[in-house]
Amino acid sequence: KQLGRGQVVVFEPAMMERSTQHARLSMELRQALERGELRVHYQPLVALDDGRLLGMEALLRWQHPERGWIPPGSFIPVAEESDLILTLGDWVLGQATRDIAQRLHSLPPGFGLHVNVSVRQLIQSDFALTLQQALRDSGLPASRLTLEITESLLLVQDAATESRLRQLRQLGVKIAIDDFGTGYSSLAYLQRLPFDCLKIDQSFVRNLSKSAQDAAIVTAVLRMAEGLGVEAVAEGVETEAEAARLRDLGCTRAQGYLYGKPQEIDAWQARP
Ligand code: C2E
Ligand code: MG
Ligand code: MG
Ligand code: MG
Questions:
Q1: Distance (Å, rounded) from C-alpha 205 to C-alpha 243?
Q2: Torsion over CA of 204, 205, 208 and 211, rounded to 10 degrees?
Q3: What confidence tens digit (pLDDT) does each residue in 2-24 have?
Q4: Residue 8, Cα to own-chain centre: how many angstroms?
Q5: Does residue 91 have a pLDDT over 90?
Q6: Predicted ipTM?
Q7: How far is the CA of 91 from the centre of ligand 1 (A)?
Q8: 44: Cβ below 6 Å to ligand 1?
Q9: Nearest CA to ligand 1 atom 33
């Protein structure tokens, strides 16, 4: 149908297999939501100088009764092919804003919640309403929320995405560009796009101590963020050596296994 009327496409067995698999996964996901098998885990975002907690990112998890924890990378892309991502996205937004709003009194001042949002959610005409509803229902102030949008998905950008981001920022929420450096954002686009934070993809952090090229790229991104007046967060920091290198390069915020893996909200609460 995508090819238009009168087009005939030979249906490959592999295509059928894939679409059947996806259909099954979609069905299982809907059931998982109903059965309460989906969970939101949280990973800390910290200040690189002293490790203090700045916020947390909400990450969706599926606790399958037989297959155990299923990582989002193996089901979000399938959900993104249909409106299922809207159902999942709404659920995460509701759950995460409630989890954090309820615990805000015991979290440091300025604490921010980051929630990943699919471009498909973003472009819904009622997304701003959905968002306002989640903030109202949970009691989380808009200023505490950052929406993370993956750079590669912003490719399907157009004037509509841009004006939607503007509208959301007017509500008081912040916008972060996730996995920065892995997509194809042009500098002209970055100049126009309303956003508050760049998350430097972990692929650049990984070889930081060995690769002069990666260090040069990270330095350039940090300078650019500074010049644009936006925050920069390094993703996927696993070792003290990576953290030290990032500090040397002038990075002030980070996230990664070095500071904590994603866990249930109460696992963080129990910490001294
Ligand atoms: P992301 O938003 O870039 O999230 C960071 C991913 O890196 C997470 O994987 C996190 O567990 C992982 N990570 C964090 N620190 C480290 C580290 O030090 N080393 C390594 N190797 N990995 C680290 P996760 O939870 O598997 O999520 C994968 C992606 O799935 C996310 O990437 C995000 O794009 C997507 N995702 C997760 N939850 C949601 C959601 O609620 N909605 C949407 N639309 N997408 C989501
Ligand atoms: Mg993210
Ligand atoms: Mg990322
Ligand atoms: Mg990612």
A1: 9
A2: -20
A3: 555 655 555 566 666 778 888 88
A4: 38
A5: yes
A6: 0.98
A7: 17
A8: no
A9: 116
Q: In testing the pocket of ligand 1, which one of 59, 180, 202, 264 has its CB within 8 Å of the most ligand atoms? A: 59
Find out whether 111 and 130 touch, Cβ atoms under 8 Å.
no
Cβ of 73 below 6 Å from ligand 1: yes
**pLDDT, tens digit, 9 for 90 and up, residues 32-60:** 999 999 999 999 999 999 999 999 999 99
Instruction: Tell me what percent of the residues of the chain surpass a pLDDT of 90.
Output: 72
At residue 25's C-alpha, the angle toward residues 22 and 28, to 5°, is 155
| Contact 178 CB / ligand 1 (< 6 Å) | yes
The gap from C-alpha 154 to its chain's centroid, in whole angstroms, comes to 12
Are 259 and 51 a contacting pair, CB within 8 Å? yes
Q: At how many degrees (to 10) do helices 240-249 and 212-228 cross? A: 50
Q: Which two tokens stand for residue 230?
A: 């936006």
What are the structure tokens assigned to 81, written together?
């092919």
The answer to whether residues 112 and 141 touch, using CB atoms and an 8 Å cutoff, is no
Q: Is 112 in the pocket of ligand 1 (CB under 6 A)?
A: no
Tokens 């309820």 map to which residue? 102
